[in-house]
């Protein structure tokens, strides 16, 4: 808003310089005429004063016409088709209390926080899914069906032997999707944080170039948010199917919970530990990642709805503010005209 006022004040100052120049020129002409005719027609001084008043009135009228033309041009510019074609989110008008409470600086900080959390969660999911695949000798645990028999029943441990003929591991594409998606999200978050720090180091860059990344960030965030939903569903449903196969092989006198996987010692895979705990953590992180994506998308929409993408700040000012500034400029011109008329009266009194 400060830049808007400065722009309008510069226009008014330029117009006032024009009016003052015209008035000074008319005053100099009147003074030269009064000096040349001082001894001949002293009774024509009221006519000269009247002409000066007329000149000042003409200058004031021309200036007001210029201001009205400027106002009408600003109004027509605000409804220019270029503004309509740039982006539809500029027509979202938020309540005034929201724009006052949440500043643009706070929105940028919140966006950076969400992006950082998304990066950490993506890295954690990548490690968990990859670690489980390594434990099962590069086999995907998601959507797998285990058929096994318990050969050693101890209160704190089950020794399990898998039936290789009936045990089916899940497709590797499911685990690869979760892994590569998290890697892509992590890279996106690192690049976003880099540009955020780069663009927020200077306020001049924030006012110009920072707005140009809002739309790409929004589009990429929406795409990655949809993929985050898919990622959460794949992890949840895939691990649920695996848990169902584990529970179906348990005896009736044993606990019918999927958490019993942590107590199992797989004879063919002796390095497997805490499968249930790790997968639950990965699933929770996946859904938290989706929530943070929704939050970042909401922040980008807020910033787009309260800012201009064409770097033309006149579009932001509404008609009410424009009319107030216009009326204030007219009042200033009227006061200047009165001061000029008083100066003319003083000159006339001195010459008399």
From TrEMBL:
<keyword id="KW-1133">Transmembrane helix</keyword>
<feature type="transmembrane region" description="Helical">
    <location>
        <begin position="213"/>
        <end position="232"/>
    </location>
</feature>
<feature type="transmembrane region" description="Helical">
    <location>
        <begin position="109"/>
        <end position="134"/>
    </location>
</feature>
<keyword id="KW-0472">Membrane</keyword>
<dbReference type="InterPro" id="IPR059010">
    <property type="entry name" value="TMEM179-179B"/>
</dbReference>
<dbReference type="Pfam" id="PF26158">
    <property type="entry name" value="Claudin_TMEM179-179B"/>
</dbReference>
<keyword id="KW-0812">Transmembrane</keyword>
<feature type="transmembrane region" description="Helical">
    <location>
        <begin position="178"/>
        <end position="201"/>
    </location>
</feature>
<feature type="transmembrane region" description="Helical">
    <location>
        <begin position="275"/>
        <end position="302"/>
    </location>
</feature>
<comment type="similarity">
    <text>Belongs to the TMEM179 family.</text>
</comment>
<dbReference type="InterPro" id="IPR029673">
    <property type="entry name" value="TMEM179"/>
</dbReference>
<protein>
    <recommendedName>
        <fullName>Transmembrane protein</fullName>
    </recommendedName>
</protein>
């Amino acid at each position: 808003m400060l830049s808007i006022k400065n722009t309008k004040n510069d226009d008014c100052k330029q117009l006032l310089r024009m009016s003052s120049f015209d008035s000074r020129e008319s005053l100099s002409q009147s003074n030269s005429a009064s000096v040349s005719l001082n001894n001949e027609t002293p009774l024509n001084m009221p006519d000269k004063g009247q002409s000066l008043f007329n000149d000042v009135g003409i200058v004031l009228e021309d200036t007001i016409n210029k201001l009205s033309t400027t106002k009408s041009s600003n109004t027509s510019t605000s409804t220019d088709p270029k503004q309509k074609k740039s982006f539809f989110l500029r027509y979202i008008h938020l309540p005034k209390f929201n724009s006052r409470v949440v500043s643009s600086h706070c929105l940028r900080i919140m966006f950076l926080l969400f992006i950082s959390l998304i990066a950490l969660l993506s890295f954690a999911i990548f490690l968990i899914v990859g670690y489980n695949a390594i434990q099962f000798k590069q086999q995907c645990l998601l959507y797998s069906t285990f058929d096994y028999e318990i050969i050693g029943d101890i209160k704190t441990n089950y020794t399990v032997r898998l039936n290789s003929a009936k045990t089916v591991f899940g497709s590797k594409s499911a685990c690869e999707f979760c892994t590569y998606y998290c890697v892509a999200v992590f890279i996106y978050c690192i690049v976003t944080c880099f540009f955020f720090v780069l663009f927020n180091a200077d306020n001049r860059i924030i006012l110009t170039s920072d707005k140009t990344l809002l739309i790409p960030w929004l589009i990429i965030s929406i795409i990655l948010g949809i993929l985050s939903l898919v990622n959460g569903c794949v992890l949840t449903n895939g691990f649920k199917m695996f848990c169902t196969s584990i529970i179906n092989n348990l005896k009736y006198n044993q606990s019918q919970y999927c958490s019993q996987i942590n107590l199992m010692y797989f004879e063919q895979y002796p390095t497997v530990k805490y499968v249930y705990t790790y997968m639950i953590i990965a699933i929770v992180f996946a859904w938290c990642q989706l929530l943070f994506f929704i939050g970042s998308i909401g922040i980008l929409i807020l910033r787009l709805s309260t800012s201009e993408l064409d770097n033309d700040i006149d579009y932001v000012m509404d008609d009410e503010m424009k009319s107030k500034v216009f009326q204030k400029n007219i009042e200033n011109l009227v006061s200047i005209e009165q001061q000029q008329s008083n100066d003319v009266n003083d000159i006339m009194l001195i010459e008399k």
